[in-house]
Design a protein that fits this description.
This protein is an alpha/beta fold and 556 residues long. The protein folds into 3 domains: 41-200, Alpha-D-Glucose-1,6-Bisphosphate, subunit A, domain 3 (Alpha-D-Glucose-1,6-Bisphosphate, Chain A, domain 3, 3-Layer(aba) Sandwich), CATH 3.40.120.10; 215-450, 3-Layer(aba) Sandwich (Alpha-D-Glucose-1,6-Bisphosphate, Chain A, domain 3); 452-554, 2-Layer Sandwich (TATA-Binding Protein), CATH 3.30.310.50. The chain has 20 helices and 21 strands. Helix 1 (3-13) crosses helix 3 and helix 13 packs parallel to helix 14 (360-368). 49% of the residues are buried.
C-alpha cells in the first residue's frame, strides 16, 4: 500500500464517525485522483492558520483537522498564557460548514478548560478582532476562507491585541499544532475541567457599531447629503449583510439599495463564480442594480466582510470600478483633510500601508506632515505597528493594502469592511458638499500629487520545476538588478532578505525604485505556486509605463 492509502485505511479502521468512513469509501471507488489528493499529505497549519478544500481526509478541512488545529492552539495557550481564566473568541462566516467548525473549535477549547465566547450567528472578521480586546481574550479564531471559491474553508488565528498572529508566536503555534498528528490526541469531549462556552450577539454588535460610529468626521455633511446619495450594497452572500447596511443607516445614509439575491447568506455563492470584490464579475449584479436605480456608488464586501470593492460614476456618468490603491488613496486624503480642518491632526498621528501599496499614499501623508509606516504584505503587519505605536501613546489614523483591505482607528486590528464602507459613503457626501464626485475628487488628488497607475501580474509555475524557476528569477534579480525602469535609472534597490537594512522581518521580496517615481516589487507567493510582480508608475504616461514594465519583468 502507498502512504496515502495507509493513511486512508487508518481512518477507516480508526475511531471516526460512520459518515466520514462512507465518504472515504465512496471517494476511493469513484475518484481515485481525488482520493489520493485527500490523503497524500496533512493539511498544513501555517502562520496564517488553515485553509483548504472541504471534505474527508488529512489534506482537507473537516471536523478532525479543525479539531487537531484547535488542540494544538489550546496546548500553546495553556503553556504560554497566564491567568486564572483564559479566554478565546470565536466567529464564523457564511461558508458551508463554518458554523460546525466553529462549534467544534469551541468544544475542544472548552474541553481543555478554556472559556469560549462564540458568536450566535455569522459575523465579520473585524468584529471578531474587536471582540478579542473587548472580552480580554488571549486569542481569537475566525472560520473563513475569505474570498476563496465555495469549495474552501479556513481557520484564522488572532492574538490578544486582535491582530493576526505574528512572529514568534505564529511559528510557535505552528510547531505546537504540528505535534498533533492524530485525532486521538484531541479532547473533543469535556473532561473534569471544562471551560464555559458563552454566546455573544447583539450586545457586541451594539458596542462595535457605537465605536465605529465615533470615528465619523463629517456627520453634519452626512445629514445634509446622505439622504441624496444612492448606494447599492452587496455582501456577496456573506456576513456583511448583518452590519454594513445598519452602520450606513446610522451614519445618515438612508438610500441603501440592496441586491436581494445576494443578501442571502449562502456558502454556495450561487450568483457569482468567485465571491471576491477584487474581481469585476463579482460586482456585476450590483452594477446592474445601480444602473436600474441611478445609484451614485456601488459597494461590495467579501464573505467575511473585511475587504471592500467600490464603483463610482465618472465625468460621463458611467460606473467605473476603483482598485484597492485608488480607494485607499481617496480615504487617506479625505481622513487627513478632515482631521486637518477639525484641528485633530497633531503630533503622534500616523498612517500605515504595505510596501506593495501605492506610493500616492506616501505623497499624501507627506503633504500633511503625517508619518507613514511601510510594512510587509499582510494586515497582520499593520496591526503590529498599531500595537507598537499604541504603547508609545500614538494614534493610528488609517491604513491599508492594495488588495482591497482598509481600516480606520484603533478599535479593530484587521481589515474592516463596515468602517471602510461608512468612510466611503462619508467621503462621497463630503465631496458632494464641495460639488465633487468621488471620481472627480480622485482626479483632483492626481492633479495635486501626480497621476499614478498600478498593475499586478502573477506568474504561475507549478511543481518542482516551477519552484526552481521562481527561485532562479529571484536569484537573477538579486545578482543582476535592472539598471532602469522605462528608461529611468534605478536609484534604489531594497532586498527584504536583509532585515538589518530594511527594519522589517526577513522576507523574500525585492523592490526597485527609479528617479521618476516608479517602483516594481517582486514577491513569490507563500501559499501558491506563483510569483507576483507589483508595478507602480507615476506621470501622465503612467498607463504606458505599466505596459512596458509588465513586458520587461514577465519576460525574465
Amino acid at each position: 500500500m502507498k502512504e496515502y492509502e495507509l493513511k486512508a485505511q487508518s481512518w477507516l479502521d480508526g475511531d471516526f464517525d460512520q459518515s466520514t468512513k462512507m465518504q472515504i469509501l465512496k471517494l476511493r471507488a469513484e475518484d481515485p485522483s481525488g482520493f489520493e489528493d485527500a490523503f497524500y499529505k496533512n493539511l498544513e497549519f501555517g502562520t496564517g492558520g488553515l485553509r483548504g478544500i472541504m471534505g474527508v481526509g488529512t489534506n482537507r478541512m473537516n471536523r478532525y483537522t479543525v479539531g487537531m488545529a484547535t488542540q494544538g492552539l489550546a496546548n500553546y495557550i495553556l503553556s504560554h498564557c497566564e491567568g486564572d481564566e483564559l479566554r478565546v473568541v470565536i466567529s464564523f462566516d457564511s461558508r458551508n460548514n463554518s458554523k460546525e467548525f466553529a462549534r467544534i473549535a469551541a468544544q475542544v477549547l472548552s474541553a481543555n478548560g478554556i472559556h469560549v465566547f462564540i458568536f450566535d450567528n455569522i459575523r465579520p472578521t473585524p468584529e471578531m478582532s474587536y471582540a478579542v480586546r473587548l472580552k480580554g481574550a488571549v486569542a481569537g479564531i475566525m472560520i473563513t476562507a475569505s474570498h476563496n471559491p465555495k469549495e474552501y474553508n479556513g481557520y484564522k488565528v488572532s492574538w490578544s491585541d486582535g491582530g493576526q498572529v505574528t512572529s514568534p508566536v505564529d511559528k510557535e503555534i505552528v510547531a505546537e499544532v504540528a505535534k498533533i498528528t492524530d485525532p486521538s490526541q484531541v479532547k473533543f469531549e469535556a473532561g473534569l475541567r471544562c471551560g464555559e462556552i458563552e454566546a455573544m450577539g447583539a450586545d457586541v454588535d451594539e458596542l462595535y457599531l457605537r465605536d465605529l460610529l465615533s470615528l465619523r468626521l463629517s456627520p453634519e455633511v452626512a445629514d445634509a447629503f446622505g439622504k441624496k446619495l444612492k448606494i447599492v450594497y452587496t455582501p456577496l452572500h456573506g456576513c456583511g449583510v448583518r452590519l454594513v447596511p445598519e452602520i450606513l443607516r446610522r451614519a445618515g445614509f438612508g438610500e441603501v439599495i440592496h441586491v436581494p439575491e445576494q443578501d442571502l447568506s449562502d456558502g454556495d455563492f450561487p450568483t457569482v463564480v468567485s465571491p471576491n470584490p477584487e474581481e469585476p464579475a463579482a460586482l456585476a449584479l450590483a452594477l446592474q442594480k445601480a444602473e436600474e436605480t441611478g445609484a451614485d456608488i456601488v459597494i461590495g464586501t467579501d464573505p467575511d466582510a473585511d475587504r471592500v470593492g467600490i464603483a463610482v460614476r465618472n465625468d460621463e456618468g458611467k460606473l467605473v470600478l476603483l482598485n484597492g490603491n485608488q480607494t485607499a488613496s481617496l480615504l487617506t486624503y479625505y481622513i487627513l483633510t478632515r482631521r486637518s480642518e477639525l484641528g485633530t491632526l497633531g503630533e503622534g498621528k500616523y498612517v500605515v500601508k504595505t510596501i506593495v501599496t501605492t506610493e500616492l499614499i506616501t505623497e499624501i501623508c507627506k503633504s500633511f506632515g503625517v508619518p507613514v509606516y511601510n510594512v510587509l504584505t499582510g494586515f497582520k503587519y499593520i496591526a503590529a505597528v498599531i500595537k507598537e505605536r499604541e504603547a508609545l501613546g500614538e494614534e493610528f489614523l488609517c491604513g491599508g493594502e492594495e488588495s482591497y483591505g482598509f481600516n480606520v482607528g484603533q478599535f479593530v486590528r484587521d481589515k474592516d469592511a463596515p468602517v471602510t464602507c461608512m468612510m466611503v459613503a462619508e467621503c462621497a457626501a463630503w465631496a458632494a458638499s464641495k460639488g465633487l464626485t468621488m471620481y472627480s475628487l480622485l482626479q483632483k488628488i492626481y492633479s495635486e500629487f501626480g497621476y499614478r497607475k498600478e498593475g499586478l501580474v502573477s506568474l504561475v509555475r507549478k511543481g518542482i520545476e516551477g519552484t526552481r524557476e521562481i527561485a532562479a528569477i529571484m536569484e537573477g534579480l538579486r545578482a543582476n538588478p535592472p539598471a532602469e525602469l522605462c528608461g529611468s535609472p534605478v536609484t534604489r534597490v531594497v532586498d527584504y532578505l536583509k532585515p538589518e537594512l530594511t527594519g522589517q522581518p526577513s522576507s523574500n521580496v525585492l523592490q526597485f525604485f527609479d528617479d521618476a517615481g516608479d517602483v516594481v516589487s517582486v514577491r513569490p507567493s507563500g501559499t501558491e505556486p506563483k510569483i507576483k510582480f507589483y508595478f507602480g508608475a507615476k506621470g501622465s504616461d503612467a498607463d504606458g509605463k505599466i505596459d512596458s514594465l509588465k513586458k520587461q519583468f514577465t519576460s525574465l
